[in-house]
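Consider the following assembly input.
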Amino acid sequence: MSTAQSISHRESKPDNYLTHSRGFLSWALTLDHKRIGLMYLVFVLAAFLFGGTFAELLRTSLLTPNHWMFPSNYPIHTADAALNVANATLNAAHDTEAKLFYNNMFSLHGAVMVFMFIIPAVPAVLGNFILPMMLGAKDVAFPRLNLMSFYIYLIGACFVSWVLMGGILRILFGLHVPFGYGLDTGWTFYTPFSTSKAEDGMVAVVAGVFILGFSSILTGVNFIATIHTLRPRGMTWFRMPLFLWALYATSIIQILATPVLAITLLLLLAERLLHVGIFDSSIGGDPVLFQHFFWFYSHPAVYIMILPGMGVISEVISVHSRKHIFGYNFIAFSSVALALLGFLVWGHHLFVAGQSNLADSIFSLLTFSVAIPSAVKVFNWLATLYRGSIRFTPAMLYSLGFILLFTIGGLTGLFLGALETDVPLHDTYFVIAHFHYVMVGSMVFAFLSGMYHWYPKMSGKMCNQNWGRFAAILLFIGFNVTFFPQFIMGAHGMPRRWATYPAEFQPYHIISTIGAYIMAISLITVALNWLTGLLWGRKAPANPWGGNSLEWHTSSPPPHDNFLVPPVADDPYNLAAWEYDASIDGWVLRKTDPVPAPPDRTRPVAH
Amino acid sequence: MNAMLNILADMGGSFWMPPQASQIAPDVDWLFFFIFWICTFFFLLVLVLLVGFSWKYRYREGQPMLDAPKHSTALELTWTFIPTVIVIVIFFYGFKGYLRMMIPPPDAYEVDVTAHMWDYTFMYPNGQISDDTNLHIPIDTPVVFVMSSTDVLHGFYMPEFRIKRDIVPGRYVKLWVVATKLGTFDLFCTQYCGQDHSSMRRKVIVEPRADFVNWVNNLGGGNMTPPQRGHFLWNTRGCSSCHSVDGTWTGKAPTWKDLYGSTVHNVDGDHLADENYLLDVISHPNIHPIASFQPIMPPTEGLVNDKDIADIIAYIKTLSKNYHAALPVVKPAKK
């Protein structure tokens, strides 16, 4: 390391974290949070690609009421009796295949997207990259633990991929891999189906999710320790960027809730492999107990997914409208409130599952409490736009899209929180649409917003803004075309997780599938946009958007140690400290700043 | 004219909701649209503010920065307080309606619902099972469904009636309804239960009370011959969802065609499918598993009695080429 450093200092080109050292091992064994963040990015995007492919496949198979991809409508009333029997046999075989295909697709889509994409996306990628830099620190508090979290994530991902590999081997070569075929439980692994009837690929996936959980816990521990111990001079708790508040709240949930998931999954494996009766009523267990355990984690996990996204939005909205964030304290406290209230509402997943009417009523009341901090955030973001100077960058377009889609996702939650209306809507496409508005419409939009916001910092390049804008608008359209019809068909009674359906729902399904294709086109555009930016993009200035949180006070891409001199923090939303410099198409610290300007940190200082 | 209108009303429902066919349905829909208009108001508010601000305060070259407050406690408390009041009101209405929906009157007519992979069995108070796989209920009468499952979780959802409940193995779950409209309605399974989850749909037939009583009293098929009754049971007790009788391969269980008298290759060795073998595998499902099928046959205890099993065996025998109904041809003895 030290040799590499001294060599790079002799060169005329300034050192950055990407060129700091070379070779496979310099990445595989790196302790640099930025490189670990990038490695997470590669695997998280790969998971997104797989999960997205499964989604496109299942939407495609839903184009017709009876799975056109495996035709099962060969005539069975012809004059030839032998042909009738042969056709009926073929129909039954195709019907079975089609349903297995669909059931595996929706299960894999859910499991891969939730556990390998949405949960790690913002914290592990953007959090890892940005959190230490926002704190003006060299790295997270425990860099080795950070690398270990990454490898635990990889091991967990290998377990989940085992099922994919096993499925391919079995279909192509007829090979049987132990615990390697089929996940047909849904991502929720409800008992007793998962422990007594499901394909055995479920064992590998549950083990994988168990392992992924530790990655999540350790990342949470690391972030909390880092925020407590490594804040720079001048950064009090209430001068932290709101992204850090969001990550802090998220980390608390990761630490407190994920162990419960780990215990639940172990019990699930014990029942499946050792036949210990815990959840299966035929051997003395209780299926509803599993649902309580599972949602005790998985509801707070919704806030693991959405809170960091909200943090991103708070940063982007403020910077790209050149306005101080409106109501900093309310936004910070609402993050913490969501983290805590999120623990008290898991029972709303069990409104029709057989819990008592008393429990239903209490959980309904508690569920409504999460509407309040959510509403506060939305109105505070809107107030931030007021009298701003709004730039429609791709990051900003995704954030504006987030506000609209999160509003719809949140408001439709009112139908599901109210007991009487939840009963008919529960387990229908209404619920699917509702949580995709929150998970995709909000979380994925926030992730893309953050990626566009910090892309110059991560890569040192600018990507084409117009293509970015085009993809953002297209994704917004595609998303609504996909999921809005699902509200209507859900209210009309279309149950979730159905491979086939009554013909009356077909128009909605066709529109929804077209929307899914539009989304695919837009996401491919985003990927090409990032790749071409990486290859041919113009060099990024240190501060392309004029943000004042500390990561903008160093070069793009940052040096190995992030800052050449330890920075001093002031108000992260004091955007007036920067002025636009057309010669570099970026922002520089205002010379006439009434506050004595901190030393210029954008240029490397000779040692 | 009236009939036409009725058909139109049956087809439609509204843009958002299916037709209303139960006493609770108008109630649920009232709350749905109450919340709907609140949501529409707030969404339009957010939309107008977002688009309005974005347009009015968009960046223009040379425009000076405007002054604006960094926070306003009064404003922020307002938009904390107003949503709080609104959600408490919504909770209250949802809670009130839910209690009405959940607590059945003590004199409600009972129908036993047994769910299994991937079918329902509906048993009426006279111990008879619905003979056309559909759920029949009388109009304008409180009916309570006492539901249990023999294998995994299932759902019980009637969209036009606005009621739903998960059926949980190992316990009884109750749900009740008063149907207010004659006709045929949907019954869907809404809790994922494996391969054929999406085929687990039945019809609910709401009949005038006199017709219903007549239908219930004629259930049972008492005058049939044993093979006829076996066929009837195959059709009505769920056998037909996995076992074919014409040689079709269903992928779930062996066909009954030519089963009797054949040799079955079980995991625990080969068996001759004689009467005792059939008795064994019907009364103890999955006792002799077959490698090419999942052991998914639900327990039959309580679903079929000894007479039923005997009739089913009699029926299976008539399906086989190994069963000889006619007198054997007597060959003259050789000299």
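Chain A touches chain B through 97 residues (CB under 8 Å). Ask yourself how this observation constrains the way the partners meet.
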